[in-house]
Structures are given as C-alpha cells and as structure tokens.
Amino acid sequence: NNDPDCLILRDDVPLPEARARATVAAFSAGSLIFSDSLDRISADRLAILKVLLPPLPQAAHYIDFLSSDIPPLLVMDLQPRKEATEMGPWHLVALFHWTNDSKAVDMELPLSGPALERPDHTACQDWHVFEFWSGTYERCTGGAWASVGSMQPRSCRLFSVRRARPDVPQLVGSDIHISCGLEVGLWQSGIDAPTSPGRGLQISLSAGRTLEAPRLWLSLPGATVASPPRVRAPADQASESVPGEPALHISGDVWRLTFPRVHADVSAPFHVEW
Fold first, then answer.
1. Residue 103 within a domain
2. What is the pLDDT of residues 80-94, one digit of tens each?
3. DSSP 8-state class, residue 30
4. Per-residue confidence at 3, pLDDT binned at 50, 70, 90?
5. In the chain, fewer beta carbons within 10 Å around the N or the C end?
6. Is 7 within the bounds of a domain?
7. Maximum Cα–Cα distance across the chain
8. CATH no. for residue 107?
9. InterPro entries annotated for this entry (predicted)?
10. Global confidence as pTM
C-alpha cells in the first residue's frame, strides 16, 4: 500500500535492523515519515535516510508472504530514466531474515522463476549482482539460485540484479540511491573518449542533493589494470577537485569509480574513459 512508513534510525536500533526497515519502507514506494531528530542521529544513520530519497516510483511487484511481519522476499522491476534508456531494465531484490531467534541462516538469491522471469520466458545465465548496503559485487553464472551466505536475525540484503550484456558498458551498482540506477539522468555509451584513443561513456548524476564523492560500480569491457578507467568532470566543473580515490578494480571487467562533487542543481555529464 502507499500509507506512510515511519523510519526509525536512531542508534539504539541495531544498524542491520535499521537498514531492513528502511528497505521495507522503500519497497512500499509510499511517503516516508522520519521520526528521529536529525541532530541526534549519527552519520551512518543519516546516510540511510538520504539514499531513500526520492522514493522509488512503484511498489514491489512480487512479495513472498511467508511471514506475518516482513516477507522474506521482495522484488521490484525498474526502468532507467528517459535519457538513460541504454542502461536497460534491472531488478531490485530484497531478502529478509526477520525473526526474534538468535540463529543466523544461510540464504539464497533467486535468479529464475516468476520473480525474475524475462519477458521472453528464457533463462539468463549471467548476472551482475550488487549488494547495496555492503557495496559488494559478484558475477553469477548459471543456476537458478545464488548463495548469499549467512544472514543474522532481523537483517536484510538488498541486491541490484542485471543481466550481463557482452561487450556493453553497464552500471552494476551505486552508493547514491537505493534504486542503483534512477540517480543516472544520462547514460550514453559508444562515444569516442575525448582525451584517449579508447572507449568513452557519458554519465550525469542527480539525486536532488549535493553528492560529495559519489561512487558507481561499472562493467567496462576492455578496461585493464594497466590502463584503468578515468573520470573527467564537465567543463563547467573544471575547478572541482578530482577525487583522490583512484579507480578500483573489483572483478573481471567491473570497476568502482569515485566521481567529483555533484551539486544538486548541476546536470552536466561526466566522461568516463578507458
């Protein structure tokens, strides 16, 4: 439903539980009521609130009702913004271990079936899987399920799941917004790199607030450790300092890139070159 959800993020709520409750609220796609005083919560709790805004465009389309409180599985299909359609659709999948018991359990992420069925009803064998709250990435190949390891009681894991596309640059994760994609206002690949003979990608970011050092996890086919990807700021942001954090190679062709500061009222694109 779209009734307002009350977020409780104060420090006496364990961080995994706060993230789980925030995830449930996000998947309802309704109005959010924040009950805590902003000047009394820590930076890591305030960060949870920030990534929930703006709210997701629709509620979860698949809910596994095996629990009377919080369901163990929520799934949402998302489409990119108008000028980022090249990115293609993706899934948000939330897994919950919601119990008052003290026992951790091993959980699995569904990679097939009605929750993640493709429009042509065929199975996808390769997936980019990014866990939002921990900022971790894994490429999953084959199989209907992927193990996500042990989950503690009253916790959740939130995954951005994308079908891997050969030789196509892809966004696989983000620390900007819980959608892992709707913060991208422009995505244009296949362009020449302005300052190198390699490949280029234009990206603009917008989340309705200033982003100090936003990070994106990108699949960049052809990027190498010897020639890592680089971020170039828009011309009108030339005075902005380039982040001191270099591109970090995660796995295969996936890299974590840190972008310069993005002001709330600026939408000029960055260039990623490799």
1. yes
2. 999 999 999 999 999
3. S
4. very low
5. N
6. no
7. 57
8. 2.60.40.1180
9. Aldolase_TIM (IPR013785)
10. 0.89
Q: Is 189 helix (H, G, I), strand (E, B) or coil?
A: strand
Q: Are residues 88 and 34 in the same domain?
A: yes
Rounded to an integer, what distance in angstroms lies between the CA atom of residue 33 and that of residue 41?
A: 15
Domain boundary among 129, 163, 197: 163
Domain assignment present for 5: no
Q: What is the pLDDT of residues 127-145, one digit of tens each?
A: 999 999 999 999 998 777 7
Instruction: Please write the tens of the pLDDT for every residue from 53-69.
Output: 999 999 998 777 655 56
Q: Own/partner pairs for 222-225, CB < 8 Å, 24+ apart? A: 222/167, 222/198, 222/253, 222/274, 223/253, 223/255, 223/274, 225/249
Tell me, yes or no, whether 148 and 113 share the same domain: yes
Strand 136-141, strand 145-151: pairing: unpaired
What 3-state class would DSSP assign to 221?
Answer: coil
| Number of domains observed in the structure of the chain | 2
For residues 246 and 255, the answer to whether their CB atoms sit within 8 Å is no
**Kindly report the CA angle at 187 between 92 and 30, in degrees rounded to 5?**
35
Q: Which of 202, 203, 128 is CA-nearest to residue 165?
A: 128
How far, in Å, are 120, 126, 138, 168 from residue 112 at the CA level? Answer: 13, 11, 17, 23
Whether residues 228 and 131 share a domain: the answer is: no
DSSP one-letter string for 228-252:
--EEE--GGGTTSPPPSS--EEEET
Domain that holds residue 248: 170-273
Same domain membership, residue 155 and residue 191: no
Final residue of a domain: which of 137, 163, 189? 163
Look at residues 244, 190, 260 and name the one whose alpha carbon lies nearest to residue 222.
190
Tokens matching residue 3: 């009734």
